[in-house]
Amino acid sequence: MTSPHHLHATAAAWSLKSVLEHLAELAEVGAAHIAAETLEAPTLLRSPATGRRHALGGDTSSLAAATDPQPARRNRWADMHTRSHRRLGWLADQLPTPAGPDGWWRIYDTIPRLQPGTAAVITRHLADEDTCVRTAVGCGPQRELLRGVTCPACRRRDVYVQTSGPQEAWTVVCTADCRCLGLGCRCRASGAVEGVAHIWPRHAIVTDTAMTAA
């Protein structure tokens, strides 16, 4: 089944997958930094009575305090990555999907078989998580402005191609917040749904020569 709700859900899924891959890279870098910090031995200790002393001489109380096990520094990116995948696992469990370790894939695989209303709910969950992660890592949406291309519905030139995922999954949206009027709408979208933000498969709107970076 294909409808604007399914296109929005698929686009949101690929956008979230892309930023989660970036988040995983940040988590790996953070883990490496934390591991390096735990290997660094203090070269100087500060004694309350006599000031600085070298680690192998002088104030044993300072030495003991410095060598006591310290709580591990948390890897905030790893924590966020784990939390996001747990949320995806929970969301996948609400759908008629086969069991599996990858919540994202379970959701993505079942989107085409969902009813439009369910696809709309999934879109909101995925988009909320995508926004949360992108805000945390300082990463904006992946999209490119289509110069010289007008929205088939409102005729404004605020049309972008969403570039997360493989090219065959890219979609085109109008950022002027124009919405479908349902049957008879100028958007000419397959399965048009009244009130839904306009979205089209990339191949329905644009050729490669029309693309330029936003």
Q: What descriptive keywords fit this protein?
A:
single chain; 214 residues; four-stranded antiparallel β-sheet; 5 helices; globular
Structural account:
The chain has 214 residues and is of the alpha+beta class. It folds into 2 domains: 139 residues, no CATH class; 68 residues, no CATH class. It is built from 5 helices and 6 strands. The strands form 2 sheets. A 4-stranded antiparallel beta sheet has the order 3-4-5-6, covered by helices on one side. β4 and β5 form a beta hairpin. α1 packs parallel to α5 and α3 runs antiparallel to α5. It is globular, with a radius of gyration of 25 Å. The C terminus is likely disordered.
In short:
43% of the residues lie in helices and 10% in strands. By secondary structure, it is of the alpha+beta class.
| Helix content estimate | 40-55%
Strand content bin: 5-15%
- CA-atom Rg in angstroms: 25 Å
Number of domains: 2
N-to-C span: 32 Å
Task: Please tell me what the overall shape is.
Answer: globular
Separate helix tally? 5
Helix/strand/pairing category:
alpha+beta
Number of DSSP strand runs:
6
Biggest β-sheet, characterized? 4 strands, antiparallel
What is the fold's blueprint, element by element?
Layout: H1 4-39, E1 44-47, E2 51-54, H2 60-67, H3 76-93, H4 103-110, H5 116-137, E3 143-145, E4 159-162, E5 171-174, E6 199-201
Antiparallel strand pairs: 1-2, 3-4, 4-5, 5-6
Helix pairs in contact: 1-3, 1-5, 3-4, 3-5
